[in-house]
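Protocol step 4 of 6: structure prediction from sequence.
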Amino acid sequence: MRELAAHLLRWHVANTPYALATVVRVTGSAPRPAGATMAVDASGNVRGSLSGGCVEGAVYELCQEVLESGEPVRRTYGYSDADAFAVGLTCGGELDIFVHRITPAEYPAVEAALDPSGPMAFVRDLSSGVVAALGPESATGADFDRAVVREARAMLDTGATGVRVVGCADRERTVFVESFAPPPRMLIFGATDFAAALCRVGRLLGYRVSVCEARPAFADHARMPDADEVVRDWPHRYLRRTPVDARTVICVLTHDPKFDIPVLTEALRLPVAYVGAMGSRKADRDRRVRLRAAGLSEHELRRLHSPIGLELGGHTPEETAVSIGAEIVAVRRGGSARPLSATERPIHAGELRVATGHAIGN
């Protein structure tokens, strides 16, 4: 939607109501991803595209109907439909399109979502059409309940977009959350077998995964196929020049003081979400002595998760990667890292199901 910002803001200045049509679900082969948007005003002006031309004609007529009635509509177009050729979607995919009317009452939420200065989740109730823009600490527009707000912000945190069903029975709400934020970063130092396994876990958790390795023989993308990038550089030097934020997680798997100490000295002074380092308890004690000698304070050292990961009893790289990923989730989400059977805390902040109706665990 942000690609339409200039056009939509001009319509806002002119107090022009318009219909916003958005791809909320894609299956199979389809030309545009979820979040693709087309807008139509009362004069018939069109901005944006949903399918590279496949279904625009049908959705254009639907937008005009919604503009007149004010009632939101969700409709599916796909190759299995009898009118697939009529709408032109012959590429073998299926699109769910949601159309709702935007009036001056919704302008503040739309404008907040269009603001490029920071991450924002644009939330739409797929029954009522009400909208809200939710930042990490801000909210504009409709007053969604806490379960919806919590889920939208969790999706924003990972840059996810999609349909969610929140709540149950008469409190159930189906919403479409469109995140305007890059995925968080996972920085892995050391291209080991453990790093290769952690790349897979990192991608599963929604991170953009970068592996940094100083040794030329090991800095090979073929060894780390699940990494988004493999960088050949000294770890501390790479960390100094790469962007990080409060969502970034750093995993030091080099297990070598000449690499560990310089990069951890940098990492523990950065405003990141998590810093962990691999090694035995003896290696950890020695590492902390060296880090104190490098000038780190006790407050900074308390941020270090070392030895890295939760005690799951695993041995293989894959089991170790799961334990690291689990610790990262627990640290970032405030989990106890204890078995659910041993706690009395609510399992879910609010019952949540994906659009297919399957329950989501934690």
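Step 5 (inspection) to follow. The longest strand covers residues 18-28.
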